[in-house]
Amino acid sequence: MSEKKYFDEMLNADGSIREPYRILADWVQAQPKSALKQLAADAETIFRRLGITFAVYGDDASTERLIPFDVIPRVISAAEWRRLEKGIEQRVKALNMFLHDLYHNQDIIRAGRIPEKLIIQNEAFCPQMMGFTPPRGIYSHIIGVDLVRTGPDDFYVLEDNLRTPSGVSYMLEDREAMMHLVPDLFHKLKVAPVENYPENLRRTLESVSPDTCDGAPNIVVLTPGIYNSAYFEHSFLADQMGATLCEGHDLFVENGKVYMRTTLGPERVHVIYRRIDDDYLDPLTFKPDSMLGVPGLFDAYRAGNVTLVNAPGTGIADDKAVYTYVPQIIEFYLGEKPILKNVPTYNCSNDDERAYVLDNLADLVVKEVHGSGGYGMLVGPASTKKMRAEFTDKIKARPDNYIVQPTLALSTCPTFTDKGISPRHVDLRPFVLVGDKVRITPGGLTRVALKPGSLVVNSSQGGGTKDTWVLED
């Protein structure tokens, strides 16, 4: 066989089946195309009934779409997962220590390990958080770490999501759908469970409730409302946790404490899992014209009467420019070498690196520092001459607004398509909870690029999802 360009997670270079996929491969081979097609149709029926959709901004045809789902799961061995788990835990611990330092002594800046300008002049930095320590010293309680794989032992962190990471509802619903569709496979394989995530989320939120809380804390999920692209998830998680789903107008502050309006009168709120951005949290502290937040909320937070999850100002730690310094951040706070590697990244503020980038745009990936969802990026190999010319002008005008990375050889997984089973590129977003302890759900959300040859896995850009099976020993 000719040498493959991409690492195939199911097949060895000689075409034999990799051990973690052996049972699944036998099952797939035994399925006629009609059976897989029926499974895909049944899965779509399940998701349509549940109303699992996402928003596509700027699409005139439809703003809401069903998440495409692939019925062939991704498999990760127990040994592979243990290594990932250690690397993820190391990373989230260091990033929380970094956040505490930035809003207190700023030792890492004083030591010259990260440029002051990168922090102080960054729009994600929240000066209102200076000198304040949240319960347990934890700033980011719910984290999604985006990983890509390029070889049997090669995993890279693509980015850290420490503000309001989304996608966990898809992980849970993907698993529920697969357990309904192929229960026989779960009997053949020891797959680590993910369904205890809502319970673990509640435990994490309870563990960071204010010291002033007596008894069981009252937890709410704060949503911008039904028009938000992730509203399904906000509603889903509130329901699964047994928490109340609120909008800003459902809450009010009185005597430095937060209350929820109910038919039985005001009810004290202790923990707010907020799914709205920093700027809109409190019109008295941040954007004065915000209609989504709660006036006086930030003062109640700083007074220690309510906990905000995640804390305001966490965005500075998942800024794409700060991302390039995470290996140094890990070494600075933990005195350890990073277990998981960053993707090599070019700094466009450096004259030599910028010159290299502009000469090689056709082979590189350009991302906005504060971009997300696959928007505002250039994938060099899939770009046109006109697109590259536009990004050349953008980088020259604002070099600090972009990071640039090589086009990674993302691994592939077998995926059921209209033409049968074909390899498609994937990434992985494991979900981490940080409170009284670090809890990492085994697996996470696998996103798959459904277009042949595409490396962009975002649902907003035509990607779908797969269930992720971490095997137990």
UniProtKB/TrEMBL annotation:
<dbReference type="InterPro" id="IPR025841">
    <property type="entry name" value="CP_ATPgrasp_2"/>
</dbReference>
<dbReference type="InterPro" id="IPR016450">
    <property type="entry name" value="UCP005522"/>
</dbReference>
<dbReference type="Pfam" id="PF14403">
    <property type="entry name" value="CP_ATPgrasp_2"/>
</dbReference>
<dbReference type="InterPro" id="IPR051680">
    <property type="entry name" value="ATP-dep_Glu-Cys_Ligase-2"/>
</dbReference>
<protein>
    <recommendedName>
        <fullName>Circularly permuted ATP-grasp type 2 domain-containing protein</fullName>
    </recommendedName>
</protein>
<feature type="domain" description="Circularly permuted ATP-grasp type 2">
    <location>
        <begin position="73"/>
        <end position="449"/>
    </location>
</feature>
